[in-house]
Amino acid sequence: MAQEIKKTTTKAKIVETKVAKTKVLKVKEAVTKAVSPIIKAPKVKTSTPNVAKYFNKNLMISPRKLRLLADNIRKMTPVEALGRLKFTNTKAARIMIKALQNVIADAKNNFNLDTNSLKFDLLKVDEGLKIKRMDKAHGSRFARGLIQKRHSRLVIHVKGNQK
Fold first, then answer.
1. Is the pLDDT of residue 23 over 70?
2. pLDDT digits over 118-159, tens only?
3. Is the Cβ–Cβ distance between 154 and 128 less than 8 Å?
4. What is the C-alpha separation between 133 and 14, in angstroms, rounded?
5. Alpha-carbon 5 to chain mean position
6. Which residues of the chain form CATH 3.90.470.10?
7. Alpha carbon distances (Å) from 82 to 77, 86, 115, 137
8. Is the pLDDT of residue 47 over 80?
9. How far apart are CA 82 and CA 98, in angstroms?
């Protein structure tokens, strides 16, 4: 008889838990129905500025020489920086002029951005590959005669407003 009582109590508990679960589910459905109109707000279209990008990963100039120039023009607008760089007589300036002309033309023609509203979003110079060669004439000097030809990676992101 003791076994029969245990069976009936376990069945009763199962029935009670099923009833409790259905009550909880009904309550959850009612809450989601009440909250769903609040969640489905109309989508507001925001005008985010478009970004034109330039990336070159194999420039034959050391990153330090290019960074010296990049740090100076980061505060300016791209058009203003282009005007300033035309009077700078360095290899880094010639590389940066071509890159800026490329990204400004890309922003103007492909993204339909106003060139006067352009600003630098990202101007980053990283280290690229290194070409290493031995120079026997220097012997043990220069890190055991190892000469490194450093290369740079240049990343420019320009953002602005559409015309």
1. no
2. 999 999 999 999 998 887 776 666 567 788 899 999 999 999
3. no
4. 79
5. 67
6. 50-160
7. 9, 6, 12, 42
8. no
9. 9
Count of residues making up the chain: 163
Residue 150, strand partner residues: 130
Buried b (16+ CB within 10 A) or exposed e, 1-17: eeeeeeeeeeeeeeeee
Query: Among candidates 60, 82, 79, which has minimal Cα distance to 69?
Result: 82
CA distance 104 to 156: 10
Task: Write down the CATH superfamily of domain 50-160.
Answer: Ribosomal protein L22/L17 (3.90.470.10)
What are the structure tokens assigned to 24, written together?
A: 């909880």
In angstroms, the Cα distances linking 139 to 15, 20, 34, 81 are 90, 86, 82, 44
Task: Give the ranges where the chain is alpha helix by DSSP (H).
Answer: 2-39, 63-73, 78-85, 91-109, 141-145
